[in-house]
Design a protein that fits this description.
The protein has 516 residues and is α/β, with parallel strands linked by helices. The chain is 45% helix and 10% strand. β4 and β5 form a beta hairpin. The chain is globular and about 100 Å long.
Length: 516
């Protein structure tokens, strides 16, 4: 049987074929694409063998049955074919042709997933001799990996291994890693807090490689929900599409483009509405409004974003500063949230809780006028790749009714996470404590909270704080130091001085005996 560990070992061996030649931010695309091709090929091969046995070699019936399968593949696109051609001087181009055929034969599900990758690239691989040697090694790395469904330890290990590698590439990529990956336990926490339900439309407009969406989808046991997402980076968008397919989600709608200036979630010229939204947008994105300004920014360096530039009226509550796009994403998602049952969990930097000016006004409007804010959860520092600062999760709910409370949780203390060598980690007990606290609050919004961990504030209290949501204003985690007994300290000092005097006298005696 093929285990997750077997797959990971092969993937790391493949990484060795690239290290020192290509930056990991690039070679991850080649390795994960090859894993994808190997998986498709092995499924195709085993399925074909099953039909050939079932129909006793009747080619016509076999082909008819294969055409009704989840995906279509021809022999010249399979991994086995490419492996046979591994010594070909044009192996890079042959891989490209195979990938193009896979796309064309499965355009509804896999259109453009390989568009941003070029196995024949001289920029990444160098001269033909070096390129061919690297690609030959890559094919040999995957040769003995058996990904036939009958040989897999369980149905989820391909998707799990894919996620594992994306996480490790994110760690290796450092600063840029957070752009395409949200740590596993943070994704799970957000998903459990918003609690997706059957028949929900689940959306993430900054979906990266899709981990948050998949965690949310996994909360629905019968898988009866629809996934929607958008990602601007073409390579990351392709990773997301492949990730969805490997997790068995063939009908996910993942748009490519700038979510703010060119949202894909348009329906009848209006923003689509979603019952459940999960998101981890780029922290404090600079020049988030550049897509709105277009030619104006080139002709007039003083051109500024204004609410009337957005046809969907998302910024009527205020326009965030150009240098910090956090509330631009918040407002996009709130305008995309279903008015009746919509709930949303979004990961943001702590600055959104207390920064003033236009952000302060937007925050006040969301709380005072619309009463959308449900909970503020502070997370430990150094959880995210490339962002050592602590982050928070904001939970919003439409239609909160008469609820005039907001839950504050401070989960940043040392006892609420595990310290890692490079990244800190949320454990299951840490996630469960936050989720249980939120559940208790939902059942009784006025329950009060837990000392030094959580607090339920009224909207009046938040107003008194000028709509500043900084968590220490609400959750008191101050630890009083033990009182010092001065008399005891004096006694200890005298005892030490007496002991020191005795030692010094003894040392003087020894020095005289030695004639020093």
């Amino acid at each position: 049987m093929t285990t997750k560990q077997n797959i990971e070992k092969v993937l790391w061996n493949a990484c060795d074929s690239f290290r020192g030649k290509i930056d990991s931010s690039r070679y991850k695309d080649y390795i994960l694409s090859m894993l994808f091709v190997k998986y498709l090929s092995d499924v195709y091969k085993e399925t074909r063998e099953k039909y050939e046995k079932q129909y006793k070699g009747d080619k016509q019936r076999v082909e008819r049955a294969m055409s009704r399968e989840r995906f279509v593949m021809d022999e010249s696109s399979t991994f086995d074919y490419l492996y046979e051609k591994r010594n070909d001087n044009q192996i890079g181009q042959k891989i490209n042709v195979a990938l193009a055929a896979i796309e064309n034969n499965n355009s509804a599900k896999l259109h453009d997933v390989f568009r941003a990758i070029d196995f024949n690239s001289t920029v990444d691989f160098g001269e033909p001799k070096e390129k061919n040697a690297t690609l030959k090694n890559l094919l040999e790395d995957f040769k003995d990996l058996d990904l036939r469904p009958s040989q897999l330890d369980n149905a989820d290990i391909i998707g799990d291994a894919y996620e594992y590698m994306i996480a490790n590439f994110a760690s290796d990529a450092g600063k840029k890693g957070g752009e395409f990956y949200t740590p596993n336990k943070v994704s799970e926490l957000v998903a459990r807090l918003v609690k997706p339900k059957e028949n929900d439309r689940i959306y993430d407009g900054t979906c990266g490689s899709g981990g948050l969406l998949l965690k949310a989808f996994a909360q629905i046991k019968n898988r009866k929900a629809r996934i929607y997402g958008q990602e601007q980076n073409m390579q990351t968008w392709a990773l997301c599409r492949m990730n969805m397919f490997l997790h068995g989600v063939d009908d996910a709608v993942i748009w490519q483009g700038d979510t703010l200036s060119n949202p894909g979630n348009i329906e009848n010229d209006q923003l689509m509405k979603f019952q459940c939204i999960v998101a981890n947008p780029p922290f404090s994105l600079d020049k988030w409004d550049s897509g709105f300004l277009g030619d104006a920014s080139e002709n007039d360096k003083k051109a500024k974003m204004s609410a009337d530039l957005d046809p969907y009226k998302r910024f009527d509550w205020g326009v965030p500063p150009t240098s910090k796009g956090d509330y631009a994403f918040v407002m996009h998602f709130l305008h995309s949230l279903d008015d009746a049952t919509g709930r949303m969990g979004i990961v943001l930097p702590h600055g959104v809780l207390f920064r003033g000016a236009s952000e302060g006004k937007i925050r006040q409007t969301i709380i005072e006028k619309f009463n959308f804010l449900d909970a503020v959860i502070g997370l430990p520092a150094n959880l995210f790749y490339g962002a050592g600062i602590p982050a928070c999760i904001l939970i919003f709910r439409k239609n909160r009714g008469a609820n005039n409370h907001v839950l504050f949780v401070d989960a940043s203390g040392d006892e609420h996470y595990e310290k890692g060598k490079n990244q800190n980690i949320l454990r299951e007990q840490d996630v469960a404590k936050i989720v249980d606290t939120y559940k208790t609050y939902l059942a009784d919004p006025s329950y009060g909270g837990e000392e030094k961990y959580s607090y339920v504030a009224t909207l009046d209290e938040i107003k008194e704080n000028d709509y500043n949501l900084n968590i220490p204003r609400y959750v008191d985690t101050f630890e009083e130091e033990a009182l010092v007994d001065i008399d005891e300290v004096k006694t200890n000092i005298k005892n030490i001085e007496d002991e020191l005097s005795k030692v010094q006298k003894q040392m003087t005696k020894y020095m005289k005996e030695l004639g020093l």
